[in-house]
Design a protein that fits this description.
- The complex is a heterodimer of chains A (555) and B (230).
- Helices cover 2% and strands 13% of the residues of chain A.
- Chain A is built from 2 helices and 17 strands.
- Chain A has a 5-stranded antiparallel beta sheet with strand order 1-5-3-4-2. A two-stranded antiparallel sheet of chain A has the order 6-7. Chain A has a two-stranded antiparallel sheet with strand order 8-9.
- The two termini of chain A are 49 Å apart.
- By secondary structure, chain B is mainly beta.
- Chain B contains 2 helices and 13 strands, in the order βββββββββαββββα.
- In chain B, the strands form 2 sheets. In chain B, strands 8-9-10-13-12-11 form a 6-stranded antiparallel β-barrel. In chain B, strands 2-3-4-7-6-5 form a 6-stranded antiparallel β-barrel.
- Classes of the chains: A mainly beta (555), B mainly beta (230).
Chain lengths: 555, 230
């Protein structure tokens, strides 16, 4: 059974500035979704729900059109259908923002009368999504979305909307999001989040943008087509048979004759490698047998023996006609202004005795911590996946936004980062404030696996499993599994199985920086922090060095 | 270590140097407990006698002249019973844990390292002319999923499930001879965890030939049993 939220994409820690919105008080996010579904003052594309105060805002825009901000304890839900720029079946539900016909003529607004007097108007067909001049399919036309055109001589024309790769795939199926879950020989696929019968490294949280859901066939690693691990102990993995879409794939951006970035869009005709070897034709298997054929990679322009970069390499390459050199990079001239990445300047080689802590609000922190308070890995600042953002090195040149290290580019309270968890946009980092440090005392050998101490808290206390059940103001805590006197559905033993929400003990299920809290039995007070002492830092913990490693890597 | 860089002194305090009885370095190892070191079984092929080996801890330079150096004999050797390239050494007496000597954490049993994880290897082994000889060097690179590593153009099916690959597919940096037995560590929150024991490779730092490491999480039960029973 699904819930109303299945058709929404959830992102924690996100906030949208939105002129068109309505504010409600709801007890649950489902109720808030109901509000959005039934919103009649505008088309509700998303809603915001704040977990502790249970405030609900329905929004006309989403992250495609509105600026997104960071905010703790806020969760953004966006209606999936409005995020997709592709169509399913004949596109009657298409709600993307394509506004040109297949011949490139701009569409006429559905609410306009010129140059064409429309039969289909927003007033007559309120459910057809006839906004602005976006392509739509109000009459269930089998040829798909269309629009009235701004060309007086052409009343209407169809639009070129790519098919969502839910029932079929384009190219090599890198964007396939369908539900085929058996291999070409009929074996059932293993779930991606399981390690049985085959252990593997394709952890969904490590490949957030690859949609490694359930046991559906996917192509996360540049194979010719989608595949999965199988439930047969004797067959580790196998390709799947996913139908190819009948409509043409999305039109790629025009190629370049020079090198920009990694050259994935290079479409020039250089066919000699950097050491002077002639390139082998991609369609040939001699002298080197390979799988990078034009048939396997229909959308990578593997023409003739031209240098290409079909698989995320660092620059265009080719197999060579030299038997002793299987493949080599090619030397492609850079496009103007597309400077090569400057080599990393090596840190001068001196021993630094520093603790992993930050001064003040952490704006000057330059350490290498890269995990958040709740243990999520940080997203690299240079990456836009899974979270698009504007905290880039060129926007914040003095913020040292390197790798995925915790930083505080916008002078927040403490260092933070975007997370690799698609559903959690950002979190504060797992760093102590230097002023909280206490000097190390005489050494005592640590155990390799430390047993947590239940009378005090480490960091923000997210691992606290003690039995304190009164708030700092002396109020008794409400049972987490109870809805009385305060009904809540967000933090329950069911929704947060790993958070230790036993009885009415103080806990920190949402990684609140101020530590464990609980709902209270006082009807006038929904929730309050608890007062639990901090544990003294252990002298030596396994895996933590007193001298910060350089962490150099080959560039 | 080929390429990479000279590490900050004592910034990998679990790294140990496995030596002959007359003090010649020949393999790496990792301190996992004040009295126990994890290394590669193939480092112990020269002799099955514990007295043939010495363990040096708390050093940055191979010469081991620093005041922080601790030297221990080996009381007992334990090779993994199914000929996997991993072994345990019990030191003749516990090492003193201080700023320069700290054990590494071990992963949870059968925990799987995700692809793309960034991990680090360290050692005093062969540098292939990339400098830093005689100093503890380090380098970092991503884990490569076994499925990719076993592709024809990589290691063509040679890597078993009990092993993991790590390196840059266009080569350039790698562990090498003399680093064997040492740690492949990855960060987990604020701690480093040892996921691999440096085991083998086809050459060093060659394109499409990542290094191969024994997957430590497969052997947590064996490690615990040996430590508890000895």
């Amino acid at each position: 059974q699904g819930t109303i939220l299945d058709s929404y994409v959830r992102t924690e820690g996100a906030w949208l500035l939105n002129p068109k919105k309505q504010t409600y008080k709801t007890n649950s996010k489902e109720e808030c979704a109901e509000r959005c579904e039934n919103e009649n003052t505008f088309i509700c594309r998303a809603f915001l729900f704040t977990s502790k105060d249970q405030q609900c805002l329905t929004l006309a825009e989403n992250t495609k059109t509105a600026v997104i901000f960071r905010r703790t304890d806020a969760v953004l839900y966006e209606k999936r259908i409005y995020l997709l720029e592709c169509k399913m079946r004949n596109g009657v539900d298409y709600r993307g923002t394509e506004a040109k016909t297949q011949r490139g003529v701009p569409c006429q607004k559905w609410s306009d009368n010129v140059p064409h007097k429309p039969n289909y108007t927003p007033e007559k067909y309120p459910q057809a999504g006839l906004e602005e001049n976006y392509c739509r399919n109000p009459d269930n036309d089998e040829k798909g979305p269309w629009c009235y055109t701004t060309d007086p001589a052409t009343r209407f024309d169809y639009c070129n909307i790519p098919e969502c790769e839910v029932e079929c795939m384009h190219c090599s199926g890198e964007n396939y999001h369908g539900v085929v879950a058996t291999t070409e020989s009929g074996l059932e696929c293993q779930r991606w989040d399981s390690q049985k019968p085959h252990s593997h490294g394709y952890l969904p949280e490590n490949f957030p943008e690859k949609d490694l859901k359930m046991n559906y066939c996917r192509n996360p690693d540049g194979e010719p087509r989608p595949w999965c691990f199988t439930t047969s102990p004797t067959k580790r993995w196998e390709y799947c048979d996913v139908p190819r879409c009948t409509t043409p794939p999305p039109v790629p951006a025009p190629g370049r004759q020079c090198l920009s970035g990694r050259g994935e869009d290079y479409q020039g005709t250089i066919s000699v490698t950097e050491s002077g070897n002639t390139c082998q034709h991609w369609s040939s298997q001699s002298p080197h047998r390979h799988a990078r054929t034009p048939e396997n990679y229909p959308c990578k322009n593997l023409e003739e023996n031209y240098c290409r970069n079909p698989d995320g390499e660092k620059m265009p390459w080719c197999y060579t006609t030299n038997r002793t050199a299987r493949w080599e990079y090619c030397t492609i001239p850079f496009c103007d202004g597309a400077e090569p990445e400057a080599p990393a300047v090596d840190v001068p080689d001196q021993a630094q005795i520093t603790e992993e802590c930050y001064e003040g609000n952490g704006v000057t922190y330059r350490g290498t911590a890269s995990f958040t308070l709740t243990g999520k890995k940080c997203q690299a600042w240079s990456s836009m996946s899974p979270h698009r953002h504007n905290k880039t090195a060129d926007q914040f040149p003095n913020a040292d936004l390197k790798e995925n290290y915790c930083r505080n580019p916008d002078a927040d309270r403490r260092p933070w980062c975007y997370t690799t968890d698609p559903s959690v946009r950002w979190e504060y980092c797992n760093l102590k404030k230097c002023s909280d440090q206490v000097p190390a005392t005489l050494p005592k050998p640590p155990q390799t696996t430390l047993e947590p101490n239940h009378d005090c808290i480490h960091g923000n206390g997210k691992d606290y499993r003690g039995t304190v059940s009164k708030t700092g103001r002396g109020r008794t805590c409400q049972e987490w599994s109870s809805q009385i006197p305060h009904s809540h559905d967000y933090f329950t033993p069911v929704t947060h199985p790993g958070a230790g929400l036993d009885k009415n003990y103080c806990r920190n299920p949402d990684g609140d920086v101020n530590g464990p809290w609980c709902y209270t039995t006082d009807p006038r007070k929904a929730w309050e922090y608890c007062d639990i002492p901090k544990c003294p830092p252990a002298q030596y913990e396994c895996g933590i060095s007193k001298f910060r490693p350089k962490l150099c890597a080959q560039r | 270590i080929v390429a990479g860089c000279i590490s900050h002194p004592h910034s990998w305090p679990w790294q140990i140097s496995l030596r002959t009885s007359f003090g010649l370095h020949f393999c790496g190892g990792t301190l996992i407990d004040p009295q126990w070191v994890l290394t590669a079984a193939h480092c112990l092929e020269k002799s099955s006698r514990p007295a043939a080996y010495k363990v040096y801890l708390g050093l940055h330079r191979e010469r081991a002249l620093e005041a922080s150096v601790q030297k221990r004999g080996v009381e007992k050797l334990f090779k993994e019973p199914h000929r996997v390239d991993i072994a345990l050494l019990k030191l003749s007496s516990p090492a003193i844990i201080n700023d320069y000597v700290i054990p590494i954490c071990l992963p949870k049993e059968n925990s799987m390292l995700g692809g793309r994880e960034k991990c680090y290897v360290t050692g005093w082994g062969e540098t292939k002319g990339t400098g830093g000889d005689g100093y503890l060097k380090e380098t970092g690179f991503p884990v490569i999923e076994n499925k990719i590593c076993n592709r024809p153009e990589f290691l063509n099916g040679r890597v078993g499930n009990h092993e993991l690959c790590a390196g840059n597919i266009h080569g350039g940096t790698d562990s090498c001879q003399g680093d064997s037995g040492g740690p492949l560590v990855c960060k987990d929150q604020d701690k480093f965890v040892q996921h691999g024991v440096t085991s083998w490779g086809l050459g060093c730092a060659q394109p499409m030939k990542p290094g191969v490491y024994v997957r430590v999480s497969n052997y947590i039960t064996w490690i615990k049993n040996v430590m508890e029973n000895n």
